[in-house]
C-alpha cells in the first residue's frame, strides 16, 4: 500500500482526523521533522505535534484518540520507547503508521500500516525514511484539506533521490578538505533553518556526539543572533547547512556574521548542488533537508576516516543495558 | 485587561479560533515554550505552533489569518524580527498578543493586546513573561475547549512566584559550590524534559554561550540515549534540570546513566524545592519550568562571579549592527 492509499483508507475509517502526531527518537525523530514542518506551515485545520518517544509515553497528548494519526519511525524497528509509543497510540484508538527498514520488527506490531524503507543501499536510500514521511504529510494535507502544490511535490519526489545521490558523489573532494580542517576540532556547532532545522540537530547529536565523540551544539540559524553568536571567535568551528528557499536569508545572515569574525565555517549549500534546477520553487523548501542530509553524510564519512574513528564505533550503545 | 479578559474579548470577535502561534527569539522564544507544551498536550482542536521570529517572517504559516492568535514576546520590546512578526501577523488579520516589560516599545505597535511583565525586580519577577504566557494558554484552552484543571492552575499561579523566589534564595550555597566546580569547564551540556525542555535550551544558548562564552549543547533528556550519551565520560560536565511530574522518569533515567559513568553532573531538582507541596499534581508539570528557571538563575550568577565574567558582558550584542 503506498502513502496515498494508506491515507485514503484512514480517511474512509475516520473522515474527521484532527491531529497528526510524529514520534521518534534521535535521528529517526529528526527524520520526521520535514513532514512536521510542512504540515505546520501549510495546514489550516489539522493539529500537528512532534515528540521524542518517551515524552509521548509519559505525557501522552489528550488529542491521541481515533481522530489522530500517529506517525512513528525507528531505523531498526527496535527502539523500545518508540515501540511502546505505538502500543499506547494503538490502545487509544489512533491510526498508527510506522516507518522502519526491518521487516516484522517490534515496531510493526502495533502499527496499522508499515512503510518499509531502505537505508544502507545508497545515499539516496538513506533519505527514504524522511521522504516517505514527508509524502505521508503531503497526502494528509491534500486529502483532508487540499494542497495546491501537490503535483509539484510529486514531481519533486520523483527527482530528489537521484539528485541527492549525485550531489553526494560530487561532494567527496570538499568533504575530504572539511575532514582535514575539522579533524582536531574540540567542538563543532551545526545550524540550519526551515525544514532543515533538525538535519542540523541530527548532525550534531548523532554524527558528531554519538558517532565521533566530538563536543557539539546546535540551534536554528535564526536563533544564532539571540545567544549563540557570542561564542563566535576566530577559529570557532561552525557547520552551516544552507537552504535554497524561503529561509535562505536567515542562513545568509548568520554566514555573513561568521565570515566577518573569521569563524572556521563550513557551508553546505543546496544551491551549489542544483536543487532549484530540479525542484519547483513552490515546494523547494521541503526538499532541502533530503539533499543536505545526503551531502553531509559524505562529510561525516570523510571525517571518520581522517579521525580514524569509524561511524559505527560506540562506547555504550549495543554494549550495555541502560 | 487581564489574560482572561483578553481571550474573552478575542472570542467575542472570533468564536472560531483555529490556531495559536507562539513567536519569539532566544530566551523569549524559550519562555513561550511551557505555554506551547501545555496546549500541545491538552488541546484537542486548537492548532499550536512555535517559531523563532524570522522563521515566521520568511515562511509565514498559511494558518495565520483572523482565526489565529499570535502570541509574541520580547523582553525589551525591540527585537527587530519579533517586531516584524507582529506586523506580519497583524496584516494577515491575526489577533496579536505581546509580552514585554517596556512600555510603548516597538513590539507594542502592532499588538492588539499588550501584557507588561516585570523582570529585574526579583527572581519571581523574571518568571512573569513565562507565567503570563502560560496563563494565556490556560485561558485559551478553558474558553475555547474547556479545561478540567483550571482551578488547580489558577491556584498554582497564586503560589509559584513566591515559591520560586524562596527556592532561589535557598539555592545560594549549592550555587556557589556549582560555580567553583564548573568555572573552568570547557563545555557544559544542559538537559531537561516536559515543559522544562526549553529552559534547558535557554540555559545553554543564553546563560552559557551568550553570557559566559562557555561552549554548550542542549537536548531533551529523552533524546540523551539516542546520540548525546556517547559523549559521556568521567568529568564531562552536565546540568540536569529535573522535573517533579509525569516526565520525571525520563530525567531520572539520564541521571542514573550519568552517575554510573562518573560524569560531572549537577542536578537541580524541583522536588528538593517543595514544588509538590504547593502545586497540585494535576498541573505540576507546567510549573516546573518557572521554579527551575528561578533556581538556575542563581547558579548562573554565582558562575559569573567565580569566573569574573559578568552576565551582562558581550562581545557583539549592543556593540555592533548585524
How would you sum up this structure, described in words?
Two copies of one chain form a homodimer. Chain A is of the alpha/beta class and 322 residues long. The first copy, chain A, has two domains: 3-147, Rossmann fold (3-Layer(aba) Sandwich), CATH 3.40.50.10490; 161-306, 3-Layer(aba) Sandwich (Rossmann fold), CATH 3.40.50.10490. Chain A contains eleven helices and nine strands. Chain A has helices at residues 3-13, 26-42, 53-58, 80-91, 128-144, 150-170, 172-182, 197-212, 248-260, 275-278, 288-306, and strands spanning 19-24, 47-52, 68-73, 95-100, 113-116, 187-192, 215-220, 237-242, 264-269. In chain A, the strands form two sheets. Chain A has a five-stranded parallel β-sheet with strand order 2-1-3-4-5, with helices on both faces. Chain A has a four-stranded parallel β-sheet with strand order 7-6-8-9, with helices on both faces. In chain A, helix 2 packs parallel to helix 5 and helix 7 packs across helix 11. The model of chain A has no long low-confidence stretch (mean pLDDT 97). Chains A and B meet through helix 2, strand 2, helix 3, helix 8 and strand 7 of A and helix 2, strand 2, helix 3, helix 8 and strand 7 of B. Chains A, B: InterPro entries: FrlB_SIS, Fructosamine_deglycase_FrlB, GlmS/FrlB_SIS, SIS_dom, SIS_dom_sf. Chains A, B: This is SIS domain-containing protein. Chains A, B: Residues 6-146 form the SIS domain. Chains A, B: Pfam families: SIS.
Amino acid at each position: 500500500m503506498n502513502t496515498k492509499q494508506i491515507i485514503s483508507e484512514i480517511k474512509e475509517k475516520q473522515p474527521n482526523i484532527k491531529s497528526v502526531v510524529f514520534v521518534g527518537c534521535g535521528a529517526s525523530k529528526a527524520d520526521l521533522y520535514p513532514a512536521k514542518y510542512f504540515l505546520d506551515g501549510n495546514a489550516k485545520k489539522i493539529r500537528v505535534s512532534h515528540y521524542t518517544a518517551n515524552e509521548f509515553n509519559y505525557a501522552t497528548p489528550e488529542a491521541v484518540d481515533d481522530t489522530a494519526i500517529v506517525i512513528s519511525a525507528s531505523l531498526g524497528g527496535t527502539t523500545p520507547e518508540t515501540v511502546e509509543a505505538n502500543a499506547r497510540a494503538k490502545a487509544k484508538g489512533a491510526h498508527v503508521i510506522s516507518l522502519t527498514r526491518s521487516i516484522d520488527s517490534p515496531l510493526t506490531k502495533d502499527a496499522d500500516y508499515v512503510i518499509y524503507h531502505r537505508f544502507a543501499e545508497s545515499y539516496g536510500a538513506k533519505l527514504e525514511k524522511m521522504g516517505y514521511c514527508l509524502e505521508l504529510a503531503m497526502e494528509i494535507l491534500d486529502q483532508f484539506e487540499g494542497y495546491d502544490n501537490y503535483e509539484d511535490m510529486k514531481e519533486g519526489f520523483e527527482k530528489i533521490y537521484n539528485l541527492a545521490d549525485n550531489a553526494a558523489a560530487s561532494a567527496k573532494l570538499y568533504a575530504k578538505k572539511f575532514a582535514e580542517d575539522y579533524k582536531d576540532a574540540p567542538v563543532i556547532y551545526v545550524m540550519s533553518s526551515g525544514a532543515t532545522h533538525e538535519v542540523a540537530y541530527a548532525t550534531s547529536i548523532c554524527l558528531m556526539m554519538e558517532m565521533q565523540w566530538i563536543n557539539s551544539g546546535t540551534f536554528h540559524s535564526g536563533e544564532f543572533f539571540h545567544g549563540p553568536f557570542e561564542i563566535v571567535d576566530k577559529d570557532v568551528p561552525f557547520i552551516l547547512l544552507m537552504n535554497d528557499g524561503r529561509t535562505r536569508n536567515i542562513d545568509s545572515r548568520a554566514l555573513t556574521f561568521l565570515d566577518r569574525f573569521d569563524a572556521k565555517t563550513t557551508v553546505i549549500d543546496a544551491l551549489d548542488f542544483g536543487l532549484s534546477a530540479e525542484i519547483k520553487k513552490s515546494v523547494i523548501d521541503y526538499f532541502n533537508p533530503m539533499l543536505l542530509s545526503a551531502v553531509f553524510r559524505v562529510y561525516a564519512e570523510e571525517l571518520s576516516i581522517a579521525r580514524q574513528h569509524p561511524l559505527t564505533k560506540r562506547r555504550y550503545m549495543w554494549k550495555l543495558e541502560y
